[in-house]
């Protein structure tokens, strides 16, 4: 079959085709309940000023890095930013990557050694799967999402003399909006693996939102010395791009020598580094603390509003007890209808459908931001409640018409 026919056939097999949405700027009359810009830093005037003055300050720096960090792409600016971020996040050292995807796929493709095992939460990000696909680890085994008992069972099963076990979890899960029971996970790994277990925490969504000055979940629990490595990304709360892996110097040196997503790619250029530096300068000074507090007020406001959600099969909150994260998943069997209804009302949310989430777990994902106003949140809640009301009444009418 010609290639074009094969590609066309593969596309027709897709239940839902992906496509780019083109967002006009500035975004007109829509309240953002969708992006990962949790601290609303992407439109923050202070950050913009800081970034522009950083660009000005180093006015004659080359714009492009000119190559991989192993060739021409490494400067004192790169190195001092990298160690400044690691120090701020309480780690012995760190290694910058061009993206979180590169960092996870590079790390998991090369750090687990032949014969080792990787045990991962079933909701772990695609970039970890990508790394595991390329890795020489002998076993890759999932455990049930956030289920420490299941993790213990898996650890007991894969444990072998001389084998390293890597346990991959996220600080805050992007689709379910819940945090990992990290302390229990670390304790379980320490007890069962006795020094051969290595917890790796992906803090992509928790960076900025959790911990002192946004240092993430691991620091907020004081576990930074008990985890093997952490990933922080800059593309979500920090309004930039790129990522850092925090680890010890030996792991850093190994990654520099073996992580192909670092070795064979052009390093971040000066403008990208300058924007990361500006964001971390704000975190260090504590300028984002009020934003973090406002975000948490907004989260409380949404949950308080949704208390009056009637208990019905039409709509429910996936993790009602988790009232401290900016991602709230609203389970519904009509995610597209609800999302469209909210979008038509001026509230940008996204439906998340199968195969991104399992059948029966389809949802509308609501992301809160520091920049959301209380009146936007109340408006969103009221529109959600109206939708549920209309749905319930339609249901009753159709039940009556059966009899
Ligand atoms: N890890 C997680 C948990 C993520 O959600 C993402 C981004 N969706 C990544 C890693 C990849 O980060 P980046 O966007 O910087 O490539």
TrEMBL record:
Residues 32-384 form the Aminotransferase class I/classII large domain. The keyword Transferase applies. One of its GO terms (molecular function) is transferase activity. Its cofactor is pyridoxal 5'-phosphate. InterPro entries: Aminotransferase_I/II_large (IPR004839), AON_synthase_class-II (IPR050087), PyrdxlP-dep_Trfase (IPR015424), PyrdxlP-dep_Trfase_major (IPR015421), PyrdxlP-dep_Trfase_small (IPR015422). Pfam families: Aminotran_1_2 (PF00155). The keyword Transferase applies. GO terms for biological process: biotin biosynthetic process. Keywords: Pyridoxal phosphate, Transferase. PANTHER family: 8-AMINO-7-OXONONANOATE SYNTHASE (PTHR13693:SF77), CLASS II AMINOTRANSFERASE/8-AMINO-7-OXONONANOATE SYNTHASE (PTHR13693). Belongs to the class-II pyridoxal-phosphate-dependent aminotransferase family. BioF subfamily. This is Similar to 8-amino-7-oxononanoate synthase acc. no. Q1DCV8. It comes from Pyronema omphalodes (strain CBS 100304). The lineage of its organism: Eukaryota, Fungi, Dikarya, Ascomycota, Pezizomycotina.
């Amino acid at each position: 079959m010609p290639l074009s026919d094969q590609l066309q056939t593969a596309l027709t097999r897709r239940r839902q085709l992906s496509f780019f949405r083109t967002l006009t700027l500035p975004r007109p009359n829509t309240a953002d309940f969708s992006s990962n810009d949790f601290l609303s830093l992407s439109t923050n005037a202070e950050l913009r000023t800081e970034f522009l003055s950083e660009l000005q300050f180093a006015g004659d720096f080359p714009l492009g890095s000119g190559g991989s960090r192993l060739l021409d792409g490494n400067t004192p600016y790169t190195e001092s930013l990298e160690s400044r971020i690691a120090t701020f996040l309480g780690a012995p050292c760190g290694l910058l990557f061009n993206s979180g995807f590169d960092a996870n796929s590079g790390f998991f493709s090369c750090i687990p050694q032949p014969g080792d095992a990787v045990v991962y939460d079933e909701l772990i990000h695609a970039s970890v799967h990508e790394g595991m696909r390329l890795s020489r680890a002998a076993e890759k085994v999932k455990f049930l999402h956030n289920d420490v008992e299941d993790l213990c069972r898996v650890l007991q099963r894969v444990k072998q003399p001389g084998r390293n076990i890597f346990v991959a979890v996220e600080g805050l899960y992007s689709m379910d909006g819940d945090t990992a029971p990290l302390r229990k996970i670390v304790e379980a790994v320490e007890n069962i693996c006795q020094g051969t277990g290595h917890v790796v925490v992906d803090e992509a969504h928790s960076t900025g939102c959790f911990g002192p000055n946004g240092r993430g979940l691991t620091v907020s629990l004081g576990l930074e010395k008990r985890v093997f490595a952490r990933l922080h990304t800059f593309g979500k709360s920090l309004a930039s791009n790129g990522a850092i892996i925090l680890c010890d110097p030996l792991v850093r040196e190994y990654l520099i020598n073996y992580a192909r997503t670092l070795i064979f790619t052009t390093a971040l250029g000066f403008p990208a580094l300058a924007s990361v530096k500006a964001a971390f300068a704000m975190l260090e000074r504590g300028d984002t603390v009020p934003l973090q507090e406002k975000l948490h007020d907004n989260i409380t406001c949404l949950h308080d509003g949704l208390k009056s959600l009637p208990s019905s099969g039409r709509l429910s909150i996936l993790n009602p007890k988790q009232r401290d994260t900016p991602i709230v998943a609203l389970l519904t069997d009509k995610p597209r209808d609800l999302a469209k209804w909210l979008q038509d009302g001026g509230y940008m949310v996204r439906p998340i459908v199968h195969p991104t989430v399992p059948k029966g777990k389809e949802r509308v994902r609501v992301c809160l931001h520091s920049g959301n106003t209380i009146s936007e949140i109340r408006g969103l809640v009221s529109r959600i409640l109206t939708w549920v009301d209309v749905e319930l009444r339609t249901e009753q009418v159709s039940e009556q018409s059966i009899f």
